[in-house]
Amino acid sequence: MSEYKSKKQSKIILSIENASILRKFTILFLVVSLIPMIVLYYFYLQVRDNGNIEITAENFNITLTIIVIGIIIGYFSLRSIIVSIIKLTQANRKVLEGILSPDKIRELGREKNEIAVLAQSFAAINDRLEENVKNLERAKKTLYAVMIKIGEGVSNMQNIDTFLELILETVTDALSSKIGILLFTQNNNGKNNNGNSHPKFFIKTVYGSDFNVESKTEVDIYACDSIKKVIESRKPEVIGTIDDSLACFKKHGINIVAPLICAPLIFQEHIRGLIIVSNKTESGSYDDDEKNLIFNLASQTAVAAENARLNYSIEETYFETISALALAVDAKDKYSRGHLDRVAEYAGQIANKLGLDQNDVQTLKDAAKLHDLGKIGIPDEVLRKEGALNESEWVLMRKHPEIGESIIKPISSLNHLCDLIRHHHEKLDGTGYPDGLRGDQINPLVRILAISDVYDALTVDRSYRQKMSKAEACRVLRTMDNHLDRDIVEAFIETLY
Question: Residue 161 maps to which CATH number?
């Protein structure tokens, strides 16, 4: 029974301790108020029973002691409650300082009415929350736009340059800025050709400016102390003022405006480049979150660029290896030695004459160097035969375009050459091989390669005939309207004279 009472008393004490400030104050007020009421009631009983008040020294001392004890208890209890209120107020103030502006805090501090202070505080907090909600909505829209851009970039991306342009555009827009600049160092080890510690920086791409990045444009980054600091610290920096040292950008027509933020591209402890974003459209400077964002993005960009470089190196090795095979085949036939290089040269001349872009020119040259690769699968007795081939030998020879295609098809980086290698012997009237394509089924690049191939075959010695002169070969090309594209033939002839 005593244990039950003890537990019950403990629960009551815990209940009081965990009670709200208002409840504690109410209980304390009642307790403190009861003491004088009990004293007064005692005096009342004395008057009622005796008709007068008889106060002895002993009774007075007891009464005074009880009142003093009650006052002391009341004082410390009320003080404890007031201290709790002050602590709560201070905690709330710190929270408000983290949410509201200093001006708003001072405005609330001048208010004398506590209720008004609370009302204004809640109103200010509500406004801030609404602003945060709007910011979150903007961030959501920005993220959605970024995902769309990245999706489009990945689906349409043909090389790393496209992806780098997308990254620069995305980070510039995400940081509410107008100008973005991406620079790379000259080579991969972060040093210049002389082995010095200062690499040369070249502009890779620019967003928000009409700057032409077709040619390699070197920028003297080390003349700018503020950007030099970024390279030395290897950390992003916000540059608040523009000085004369940044004229290295302005002379190229890139008009950057403060504030700007600059972050290094670091891979394996080497500086591989820089990202610079400037011309902030909103008031204020770049904050720490934005510095972290651009630094992380710069790190990922450095990795992506390095992976692209390694991938390109591997693809280049593939191409060189296969080209070596093709040259080995070319060297087997004394009549066709140098054929691949000559066809590549003719194809490039035609492409330039027709105004094709450099990607198509390069595609043609690469395809020309590999177009007879399939002859590696043709027996030597057929390749080296003196005189014309018989029907069975022609059946074997006509397989070389398909063999060539099958060799390069597994290599994804060379897939764009498959059509040219497979169809370089197709004819407009459909009598070519291996697929008998006709007319518009044969794409323009294939037509250019076919004309280059035929012209070189006409102008070299064969076992069964002597080589033709340039004029004779051009005349023959003009008679092959059913096989070759007449307009391209005429363009080619113009390049020869």
Answer: 3.30.450.40
